[in-house]
Design a protein that fits this description.
The chain has 392 residues and is an alpha/beta fold. It has helices at residues 27-72, 76-86, 91-130, 143-197, 203-234, 247-257, 259-265, 283-299, 331-334, 358-368, and strands at residues 3-6, 243-246, 268-272, 278-281, 306-313, 317-325, 372-378, 381-389. 60% of the residues lie in helices and 13% in strands.
């Protein structure tokens, strides 16, 4: 086993892509309604003008006189005077009423046309309630409404999937807790039963069984503490005591503590970091982060391979990576690597890991420090990256 310490200072710029949401463009919808309204107003005016030019001004007067003659049974001259006194002198009023009536008729037609849009929106809402997978489609001029409805549909679908995933994770949690706690508890009960039932058990066997039971009890206590800890992080009951931390010394100390584990597994470690590296955070919890990352690297690395710990400072962040050589982690499992009670070994044996909350706890601690933690795995090389804000 060998340790190499190489100091390296490098710089880099961290860029952030900012996306700006544009307001929905309702211009097409507004123009469509405006054009339809103006068309109706012009059409009603044109109809009244046509009535005036071709009916009232031409033969409309004669028709009105004849109607008065028929209804009142008077001669033509008297009927003309009645028409002149009661109708012709008030023709503006009659035309205004005609304009209003025609406009109202066409306006009703406009409202019925607008109702079609409301029906489309209503059908879109029905699709949301029916939880249909198909995208909602509206008229071209209603594209902003279509986009918003489809956005709501996507959000609801994502929430439903998240709820189902949460329910599944809850069921898995119960199953995992039962499995992980039952395993050491069964051993403890078994050895204690032997001690109770076999009275004349040799003293050497007694010490052996007590020692095994105590080890299993310690393991059970550790598991329960980890379960409690991750629950506290999830309920935001954990706070950090931040201060300036010598990150170089902290990493070197954590690596030194893991030397027996590296030796047992046949691994050797290479450590790259500048000695002046400093971060602002909780030293105890940061040590827990890198402790969990190193344990994960050893558990899932091939025997006799190199584990690399690299730390460097950029203008705004400190980046720490822990790399190990082993099996390539599929992309779909990379997304769930930091979830609670997730382990790469589906059988959940104790040979390749603990309770499955180590990386989840590390993630919660890093988030509390305002940082991020990610994983990448290609060609047998798995890299876990922790990014923390600089002390500056």
């Amino acid at each position: 086993m060998k340790i190499r310490n190489i100091s390296k200072q490098s710089g880099g710029m961290v860029t952030r892509l900012k996306t700006k949401e544009k307001d929905a463009d309702y211009t097409a919808f507004q123009l469509r309604i405006t054009r339809r309204f103006c068309t109706i107003a012009l059409l009603s005016t044109a109809i009244v003008i046509m009535l005036y030019l071709f009916l009232w001004k031409q033969r409309m007067g004669e028709w009105m006189v004849r109607l008065i003659e028929l209804w009142t049974d008077i001669d033509h001259e008297d009927a003309f005077y009645i028409y002149n006194d009661y109708f012709r002198k008030f023709k503006e009023v009659f035309f205004a009423m005609a304009i209003i009536l025609i406009f109202l008729f066409l306006l009703i037609f406009l409202f019925r046309w607008l109702t079609r849009y409301f029906k489309e929106i209503n059908q879109g809402i029905d699709c949301l309630l029916a939880e249909q997978a198909e995208q909602i489609q509206l008229s071209p001029e209603m594209q902003p409404f279509e986009i918003k409805l489809n956005t709501v549909q996507n959000i609801l679908t994502a929430r439903e999937q998240a709820a189902r995933a949460a329910e599944q994770r809850k069921n898995e949690l119960v199953m995992y807790l039962a499995h992980d706690i039952r395993t050491p508890l069964t051993s403890i009960i078994g050895y204690l039963r032997l001690l109770e039932q076999i009275k004349d058990l040799p003293e050497e066997d007694k010490r052996k069984y007590i020692h095994i039971s105590l080890e299993k009890t310690y393991r059970l206590e550790k598991m329960i503490n980890e379960f409690f800890e991750i629950t506290c992080y999830n309920t935001q009951q954990i706070t950090i005591a931040a201060k300036a931390v010598d990150l170089y010394y902290l990493l070197a100390q954590v690596i030194d503590e893991h030397m027996p584990l590296f030796t047992e597994h046949g691994n050797y470690i290479t450590f790259h970091a500048p000695e002046s590296l400093e971060v602002y955070g909780d030293p105890e919890r940061l040590a827990r982060v890198f402790n969990n990352l190193l344990k994960n690297a050893v558990n899932y690395s091939s025997p006799g391979t190199e584990i690399i710990v690299n730390a460097e400072e950029t203008p705004n962040h400190i980046v720490v990576t822990v790399s190990n050589h082993g099996k390539t982690i599929p992309d779909d499992k990379l997304e769930t690597l930091f979830e609670k009670f997730y382990r790469l070994d589906e059988s959940r044996t104790s040979n390749t890991g603990g309770t499955g909350v180590g990386l989840a706890i590390a993630k919660e601690i890093v988030i509390l420090h305002g940082g991020t933690i990610t994983a990448d795995s290609k060609n047998g090389l798995t890299v876990l990256t922790v990014t923390l804000p600089t002390s500056k």
